[in-house]
Amino acid sequence: MVSRVESVEELVSRAVDTFRQRYGQTPTTAVCGPGRVNLIGEHTDYNEGFVFPMALPMVTVVVGRKTDSGVCRVTTTSPDADDPKEVEFPVPSSADPLRPGTPAWANYVKGVVANFKDEVCSFDAVLASSVPLGGGLSSSASLEVATYTFLEQLSPQNPPVTLKEKALACQKAEHQFPGMPCGIMDQFISVMGREGHALLLDCRSMAAELVPLDNPDVVVLVTNSNVRHELTGSEYPTRRRQCEEAAKILGKKSLREATTDDLEAHKAQLDPEVLCRARHVIGEIRRTTEAASALQAHDYGKFGRLMVQSHNSLRDDYEVSCAELDTLVSAAMDCEGVYGSRMTGGGFGGCAVTLLAASAVQDTIKHIKEKYTGTPTFYITTPAAGARVLQISVESQ
To answer: Could you give the residue numbers annotated as active site?
Structure first.
């Protein structure tokens, strides 16, 4: 009942096979960048708040090699990516900079190439991913971070950029090329993730604290609703603008600095919808720091209650949930051994994340399948490592 995630080794092997078929050579370099699930702290990152993600075993792999052609050629093996599956573009220069275009998936690669902190050489590359597209598990950041890591191997930087600089370059790439005004969370966790840990990230100071999540009796269930969302539409930018409007009326640089008392004092000046958006963010920032403390103390019951409060706020005040996600969360919470559940990611579809006892997994999945009219996909996950360089096996060579 639990979906099998293609291993990193399998992804590399598949990408190497495609590379040989497409480019007639064997790649010299392989890297990966993970997707992520955010345990709590949704729509807080662009409000300078706290987020609490973990890196996933699901990754985007890039294999490739340096060329002297002056042209970058990239092939994706993802069946869900838009056509064409192959692109090529010249190495950018000040006279001929890269620009966004089609296909959409290539903009993530181009954006990173354009924002790489050193000169870029020409290359051939193949992408393979186990991160579901549009599932709210940050397939975009995993691709960006994997691409940056790949470029670092082709053109080693001296001195190398810091992990923070790398994450910020990937965030800038997403702002400029796909045109998504995302916060910093997705790129940071893809770069900085550590096995057996979640990451409490302060999006104002960019200080990060690793929090152990390594109790074998407790697991994270990610349930994909398989309702796909496209966030470059108006919903995400609109909410971001509403948060900025609320902060301005409250006289704050960001909603991170605001309190519920501030909100109450300015209630009359705030549009009702803007008030709701701000109420979610202010409450969610508090819930996230409380949840990290609860996890440190192994208080899974409290952590779960905060997850449910987060979901209710995202549904009612931020209005980014949907009927499918609400059903997944409600069904999970019916089950014994479940500590908490909530929608995760930007919203409008995608995934729910559930913290539960390992012994409760099969009964919980069975109950969700009975209650949910769609076709969900289930992943049992534990926190994984961040972006890294991989070996190309002798068999692949």
So the answer is: 186
Q: Are 212 and 196 in contact (CB under 8 A)?
A: yes
* CA dist., res. 239 & res. 243, Å (int): 6
Distance CA 208, CA 200 (A): 6
DSSP category for residue 119 = P
CA–CA dist 193, 38 (Å, integer): 12
CA dihedral 357, 361, 362, 363 (to 10 degrees): 60
What gap in Å lies between CA 23 and CA 40, rounded to an integer?
43
Torsion of CA 39, 36, 135, 152, to 10 degrees: 160
Residues 6+ apart with CB under 8 A from 205: none
> How far lies 215's CA from each of 35, 162, 195, 308, 382, in Å?
21, 31, 12, 21, 10
Query: What is the mean pLDDT of each successive set of 10 residues along the chain, which is 397 residues long?
Result: 91 97 97 98 96 98 97 96 96 94 97 95 98 87 98 91 96 95 92 98 96 97 84 77 98 98 97 98 98 98 98 97 96 98 91 97 98 95 97 68
